[in-house]
Amino acid sequence: MRKAGITDYEAFGRQVLAAIPDRPISLEVFADELPEMENQGKQIATWGSNVNVKIPVTNTKRVFTGPIISRLASQGSCLTSPRS
Questions:
Q1: Domain limits at 42?
Q2: Angstrom distances, CA of residue 16 to CA of 19, 23, 39, 71
Q3: What pTM was computed for the model?
Q4: Is 42:72 a contact under the CB 8 Å cutoff?
Q5: 2 lies in some domain
Q6: Is 64 helix (H, G, I), strand (E, B) or coil?
């Protein structure tokens, strides 16, 4: 994204979601700390009805993020899990 000149991830994400309202769009959290991953996931989920929030299965410290994925899914956030 940096190479493409994107400096505001939220503005970019919202613009893409608005431009393509009839297809699911996946946007990934960038945090590595578990509480911030969850907070980012919750925030991204509010950006549009067609958003899929991507949470890595582990963070860079190899801590499993399953509990975060479960909590967000139970709250109605649409989630996908990219390979980490």
A1: 9-80
A2: 5, 10, 21, 26
A3: 0.85
A4: yes
A5: no
A6: strand
Question: Are β-strands 79-80 and 25-28 bridged in parallel, bridged antiparallel, or unpaired?
Answer: unpaired
Residue 79: phi and psi, rounded to 5, are -125, 150
pLDDT, one tens digit per residue, over 19-78 is 999 999 999 999 999 999 999 999 999 999 899 999 999 999 999 999 999 999 888 766
**Total domain count, the chain:** 1
Contact by Cβ (8 Å): 47, 21: no
Question: Is 3 within the bounds of a domain?
Answer: no
Q: Report the candidate in 33, 64, 68, 26 with the shortest Cα–Cα distance to residue 48.
A: 26
